[in-house]
Amino acid sequence: MYAVIKTGGKQYRVAEGDKLRIEKLNAEEGATVDFDQVLLVGEGDNVKVGAPLVEGGKVTAEVVRQGRADKVEIIKFKRRHNYKRTQGHRQSFTEVKITGISAA
Question: Fewer beta carbons within 10 Å, N or C terminal of the chain?
Answer without folding.
Answer: C
